[in-house]
Amino acid sequence: METRSVPATAPSGSFHARANLHGGDVLNKEQLINTVADKTGMKKGEVRQTVDEVFSAISDALIHDGKFQYIGFGSFMVKKRAGRTGVNPRTKEKMDIKARRVATFTPGKKLSTKIAQK
After folding, report:
1. 83: DSSP letter
2. Exposure string (b/e) for 95-109, b if CB count within 10 Å is 16 or more?
3. pTM for the full predicted model
4. 7: Cβ–Cβ under 8 A, 6 or more apart, which residues?
5. Ramachandran angles phi, psi of 48, nearest 5°
6. Contact between residue 99 and residue 81 where contact means Cβ atoms under 8 Å apart
7. What is the pLDDT of residues 9-21, one digit of tens each?
8. Which burial class, exposed, middle or buried, applies to 24 when counting CB atoms under 10 A from its CB (0-12, 13-18, 19+)?
9. Phi first, then psi: what are they for 107, rounded to 5°?
10. SS3 state at 40
11. Where in the chain does DSSP place strands (E)?
């Protein structure tokens, strides 16, 4: 698999400076913290605490209100999935799947445009 060169503007600790840019890599929490710390000059401990608080607030919004929206990025929503009858692929036996709530993500227009241009 061929990798692309990294733009000169990418900080050495950023996700893009270390990633294979063909889409095979995943930005994890530590890489997010390092990238934000590099771009903002904040200490990693401060960034870690901020990132934890942001995701905690998003989680609380989903649990209690069922929706979080960040204009330009996208919306996280909780949707109800109805119960249904499924089939165990191993045994071919029918089974009941209970109704449940699931989190979904819908990208915003700006994010969708950026992804389409990539």
Report:
1. P
2. eeeeeeeeeeeeeee
3. 0.69
4. 16
5. -55, -45
6. yes
7. 444 455 554 544 4
8. exposed
9. -65, 145
10. helix
11. 67-70, 74-81, 84-87, 94-97, 100-107
